[in-house]
Input
Amino acid sequence: MRILVTNDDGYLAQGIHTLAGAARELGDVHVVAPDREQSATSHSLTMHYPLRVRRITDDLHVVDGTPTDCVVLAVGQLLEERPDFVISGVNHGSNLGDDVLYSGTVAAAMEATMLGIPAVAVSYTGRDPDEIEAWQPVLTNLLRKMLRRDFPPETLLNVNLPAVAPGKVEGIRVTTLGRRAYIGSLTRALDPSGREYFWIGGGESKWWGGPNVDFRAVHSGFVSVTPLHLDLTNYRLLEKIGEWDLNP
Ligand code: MN
Output
């Protein structure tokens, strides 16, 4: 089994070391990851400047681009053989509900899915990245079970680990995406020269959703596993929008 490991926090992050360690129990691991923080870059592709790749070892390359760039380069150029599986993470922070649309971690797995390669994104919902290392045996176990099955096409699995010690996990729940809203996460202020600036981030957030949403699972101490597909079509509305008579 050939496994490509990537992330969006950069190749020096604790999370990717833990994930690569877990994956090495299951197959040959090649890491191709951003050379710096690329969180919240979503599915962006670098097209307007060249990409540079630094080979650290035979099985570690770093790229001055996004997580999506890493998957594209790894599969298209850097790896001698196409990977059987792509794993992204472990992200430092949750990727739950609406946040999967901003996440570089999830986008790397989406890119693999688009290339026809089974993919899993993994995120840790706790605040301290040093806590991720203890999850390595749990991740090996979980990934082994996921790789063993016939992986569904056009689908990736979005895994979120609860902010508890691995020994305290309640179990695993297969979930749906919840909803999330941020409050006070847009700051408007003046820089030291008196010029106005804006800063997105921080603040409070609230989540909501049905009984089976990902947020509820991790807040109850469960590992959340959400199957995601990339077709955003709202099939329930096809007929209704068709009735709008949009013809001129
Ligand atoms: Mn990140």
Residues 8-9, 39, 91-92, 105 surround manganese (II) ion (CB under 6 Å).
